[in-house]
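Input chain follows. Return structure tokens only.
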Amino acid sequence: MVKYFLTIFLVLFLTTLCPGQNRQIAPLFPGGVSELKKELYHNLSSKSKGEKISYPVSFRLNFSVDKRGKAFNASIYGIDDPVLMKRVSKAVKKLSRFKPGRANGKPIRCDVSIELDLK
């Protein structure tokens, strides 16, 4: 009888310590990472008002995705050029909607970081 109660106690105790639904899922871009890079390259290469901007050969792009799947708040790690930052910010805002990230089944704001090579 004591073994029975001890077993039940251990099972109940361990299930409260290890809840199964505490998962976080990253935002997903339609078509995956390759389509995300293609759309970013397209948005960055589109000319506006005759601007000529020289991009670094490769850079790390950081941005956020809100609860509705819209990208915003773009920045480039290690670059302080305001014209380039404005162009990159516009390119990120033009992105198609992501499937938002989730935590415990609810949409959340997530940060995304991606390496781009403009060779």
